[in-house]
Amino acid sequence: MSATRKPSARCSDAAEAAFGGVDVLVNNAGIMTLSSLAESSDALFDRQIAVNLKGTFNTLREAAKRLRDGGRIVNFSTSIVGLKLENYGVYAATKAAVETLTAILSKELRGRSITVNAVAPGPTATDLFLNGKSEDLIARMSKMNPLERLGTPDDIASAVAFLAGPDGSWINGQVLRANGGMI
């Protein structure tokens, strides 16, 4: 493997060498830095675009070429795309783009029985959500949904497992908003 190849290509190479191919891609890398649009720096914007959007794009490109027929792709978005909360503008924009890529790739892979979907978690008790937020804000956001709690990593993993498994075989080009009914 060449060190000049993109990490997504090197990862696909390694999976193909170890397992003979790739059947499932879960795009779950993401970062979030909150700031009003007026106060967002170019560095903040560029970093979130690089990780949340370009990282997803790079792995989708590889998967489109390499994923075995009948495979599954699950991207990560966010329920913030629907909530449109202040200070989440750049983050939400990257995830809205991921939702659009999801729908388009599901159509581009026509004829290969590959599903492409996204999971859009609501507030979930992970470092990505909890870091940098006051206890008051966390409590307020946990009460925003009718279940009146934060999601758990297991809640989100179950949604991903559904879409990646045989029970999700008829779901394609969709965004599953796993958020306790928040939106």
Protein described:
With 183 residues, the protein is α/β, with parallel strands linked by helices. The chain has one domain (8-176): NAD(P)-binding Rossmann-like Domain (Rossmann fold, 3-Layer(aba) Sandwich). It is 47% helix and 13% strand. The protein contains seven helices and four strands; from the N terminus they run αβαβααβαααβ. The chain has helices at 7-19, 42-66, 80-83, 89-108, 127-130, 135-142, 153-164; strands spanning 22-27, 67-76, 115-119, 175-176. A four-stranded parallel β-sheet has the order 1-2-3-4, sandwiched between helices. α2 (42-66) runs parallel beside α4. The longest helix is centred in the first third of the chain and has 25 residues, at 42-66. The radius of gyration is 17 Å and the shape is globular. It starts with 6 loop residues before the first helix and ends in a 7-residue tail after the last strand.
Strand and helix map with partners:
Elements: H1 7-19, E1 22-27, H2 42-66, E2 67-76, H3 80-83, H4 89-108, E3 115-119, H5 127-130, H6 135-142, H7 153-164, E4 175-176
Helix pairs in contact: 2-4
- The 3D shape can be described as globular
| Poorly predicted runs of 5 or more residues | none
Fold-level CATH name: Rossmann fold
Percentage of β-strand residues: 5-15%
The total domain count is 1
Oligomer: single chain
Distance between the termini: 45 Å
So what's the CATH class? Alpha Beta
Name given to the CATH homologous superfamily:
NAD(P)-binding Rossmann-like Domain
Q: What's the total helix number?
A: 7
Helix/strand/pairing category: alpha/beta
